[in-house]
Structure prediction request, 640 residues.
Amino acid sequence: MRIGAARQTYAADEALFETTVQRAWFAGLLAALVAFPFMADAYWLYLACLVAINVASATGLNILTGYTGLVSLGQAAFMGIGAYTVAVLEIRFGTPFLLNLVAAGLLAAAGGILVGIPSLRVKGLYLAIATIAASFILHFVFANWTSVTNGVTGLSMPPARLFGVALDTSFRMYWLIVPVTVLMVMGAANLFRTRIGRAFIAIRDRDISAEVLGIPLLRYKLMSFALSSFYAGVAGGLWAYFFRVVTPESFPLVMSIFYLAAIIVGGMGTILGPILGAAFMTMVPEVLKLGVGWLSPWVPDAVALLSPVRTIVFGALIVGFLVFEPQGLAEIWRRVRRFFHLWPFKT
Amino acid sequence: MSDLLFLVEVSLAGLGAGGLYALTGVAFVVIYKATRVVNLAIGELLMFGAYLFFGFSVGLALPTWQAILLALVGGGILGAVIERSVIRPMLGESAISVFMVTIGLGSILVGLVEVIWSPDPRRLPEFMPNAPIFIGDAYLSPKVGYGFLVAAAVIAAFLLVFRFWRGGVALRATATDQAAAYSVGINVPAVFSLAWVVGCVAATGAGILVGAIGGISSTMGVFGLSVLVVVIVGGLDSILGALLGGLLIGLLEALAGSYLGGEYKLLVTFGLLVAILMVRPYGLFGTTEIERL
Prediction:
C-alpha cells in the first residue's frame, strides 16, 4: 500500500497502475525492451529469449499455484504438449505460426483440464503427485506415439516465417517471443481484476468458504488449470520455435520443478514474482558458468564441478528462499521501493 | 509350464523389490505421521545413505559391518541436522512450502554426492551370500532374496520398537494428537527430531540394500518416485499401507517390466496411482481428513 495515493473510486482501486509515475516507468521498460536487441550481442539475446519463454510459463504456473493454490508439477509436460503441437503443425501443414501457437495453447489447455479433473476430489500434495503422474504419462506418450511424435528421436522443425522472413536467429525470435510474453503477462495482470481472477484468489484462501460464497469450485479449478496450461502450451510453442528440436527428454520433471522454484523464489501470488523469479533462476546457472571460467586457472577440474554445483545452488536457493524470504524477490523489491518512497523517514 | 514358472520367478523378483519399497515407504510414513512433512527427498536420502556406505567401506576400507553401522549412524545424524536446520523453521508454514523445501534438499544432496564422489555409477562391495536361491523350481536372485529378508527383519524390528519402546509410543502419540501429546508431557519437538532420525536411518538401510542389488549412482533418487507411488497408494499415514503398497507396486513393476517392456513400468505404476486417487483419494488405508471451516 502506498502512502500519499488516496483512492476514492473502485476504478482507481482496481487500476493496473496506481500512479502516473508507475505508468511512466512501465513505458520506460517497454522502450528498453524495444531498444535491447539493438544493443545486446547474440549471447545476451539468446538469454533474453530464454528468460522470456520461462517468464511466460512461470506466469501460467503462478495463476494455478500462486493464485488458485493448486500445486502442479506438470508444467513442463504441458509445455511439451504445446511444443509437439507446434512442431507437428509446422512440419505437416506449414500453417502460420500465430495459429500454431494458439492451437498449442488450446491443446495444452485441454490436457490441463483432463489433468485437473482429479482436483475435484484430491487436494494439496495428493494433487501435486497426481500431476507428477500426468507428466510421466505424457512423457510416455511423447516417447511412444511414434507416428506423430517420431519417438525418442524427436522432431526437427523449420523456423517460423513472418512475411517471408525466416525467424531463425535470436535477434529475429526476440520480436516474436518478447511481445507474446508481454501480452501474456499483461493478460495475467488483468485477469486478477476480473470476477474470475478474484474467484481464484478466494479458492486459494479457503476453498470451502469460496464455495459457500457461490463460486462453483470444480468449474473454477478446471478454468485455472486450463489457463495455466494454455500459458504453458504457448510457452512450449515458443520454446519449439526457438530451439527447433523437440524430443521427449526436452521436458523432464526437473523442468516442472524449475518453474515451481522460479515462482517461489520470485514470490507466489504476485505478477512481478514469476518475472523476477524466472529471470533470476535462468541467470544463476550462467553466472555460475562465468564463475567457473574465472576459477579454472586455480581449481584444476572446475568445469567438472559446474553441473553438481549448479544442482546444489538450485536446491539451496529453493530452501534458502523458503526459510528466509518466503515472499520471494517481489517482497524484496517492494521493500526497496518503500525505502526510497519514504526516505528520509524510516520504513 | 515354463510360462507359469516364468510368471512365478518374475513375481518373486517383484515381491523382493517390493520389500525394499516397503522399507523405504515405512521411512517415509514415519516422518509423515509424526511431522506431516511430505518428504520428496526420500529417494535422495536413500542415495546419500548408499554413498555413505560406499565411502566407509571402499573409501576408508573398513570391514563391511563397521561400514554399515557407520553409514546408519551417519544417516541418522543427517536426519537430525536436516530436521533442526531446515524443517524446524518451516513448522506452521503451508504444506506446499515444506514439500518444496524437501525438493530443494534432494537437489542439494544430489549435488553433494556428485561433488564428493563424482556422478559415475559405482558398484558396492559384495557382502551378501551369493548362492542361488530356489523356491520350489523357481530361481530367485540371491541379492534380491536376502535383500527382502533383511528388509522384512528391519521392518519387523521397527514395528516392535514402535509398539513397545517409550520413544516409539511417544511418536505414535504425537502422530495421533499433537496437543494431547504436549499435555501429557511428551517433548514434541524431540519427537520430530526422533522421527527424522529414524526415517533417515531406515532410508539409509534401504539405500545400502538397493545399492547392493543394482549398484549406486547419483540418479538413484528416482527410486524415490516409485516409493512416492507406494505411499500414496497405501495411504500417506499408514504403515500397513506402505507395506502392502510396497509389495503391490514391486509386483506390478516386475510384471509390467517383463510382459510389456521396461518403458511401461512407470506408466503402469503411475496409472494405478491416478486410478487410486480418483477412487480413494486418501489411499487404500489412509485416514480421510475431515475439513472444517
